[in-house]
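**Protein of interest**
===
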Amino acid sequence: MDDTPEPGPHTDGLDRRAELSEFLRTRRARLKPEDVGIASHGRHRRVPGLRREELAQLAGVSVAYYTRLEQGNGRNVSAEVLDSIARALRLTDAEHAHLTDLAKPKEQRRRTRAPRRQQQMRPALRHMLDSMEGVPAYVGGARSEILAWNRTAAALFGDWGVLPPAERNWARLTFLAPDYRELFVDWESKASDMVSYLRLYAGRHPEDPELSALVGELSVKSEEFRRLWATHDVKEKGHGVKRMHHPLVGDLSLSYETLHLPDDDGQFLSVYYAEPGSPSAEALRLLTSWGTDAPAVSPGAGRA
């Protein structure tokens, strides 16, 4: 880290108006006139992306109305107007939901409560994880907490049990534990996804002091986190492929699925698996046989 970091969010919550303003501004800035069929005619443009008046015209609203919204004033905005703006900005489903969370008036907003400070695990989930032999699996929380895991996950990702509960958090590990930069071949993609998940949650629960404390800590300690947080990108947890380089078994290519758990404070189950008969499947078999005795990743290395 080179210069003094920008101040992180206050621990009493994020500023919803500022979040709405910056989200709309960054979404508008990423669109080029030619992306939406507007001819620039070679004119010099003083701002990146679309102008406010161009976006307003595409959305079918007045420039004054859109300007108020981009300044963070979402009072009395209708779902229909938000839909039009989302279409004009070419938002993804996750981005559209995030815009609604930020702009909706309080009386119309979804009434969802933030997860409890100490999330509880149903015993049945722990039993299920233990029964998933040979498949790395863990249960996570809405703020990227790591709540429970099986032996194969510990062999792959490191033994999270050696960490204090407060430090069992994917966002902290991704940005503050050096070993995780080596574990994930495309660390930048992993880091970007992590910040995008937290941004989406922040739009739903800007008043959550636990999230604000986490964001504030990472903003102070990690320049990469500050840079990615400032992009205002949002993304839902889903599925895909992660390439890893494990210090014991070498390269692995693992598919993953994320399953949201019902009625469990935003908890989710993540499961990783390898193509049958592949070198990655054999690597997982070896890791499973060694379990937590394997000299694997050290999640506590370099803790700040």
In short: Residues 122 and 264 are 9 Å apart (CA to CA).
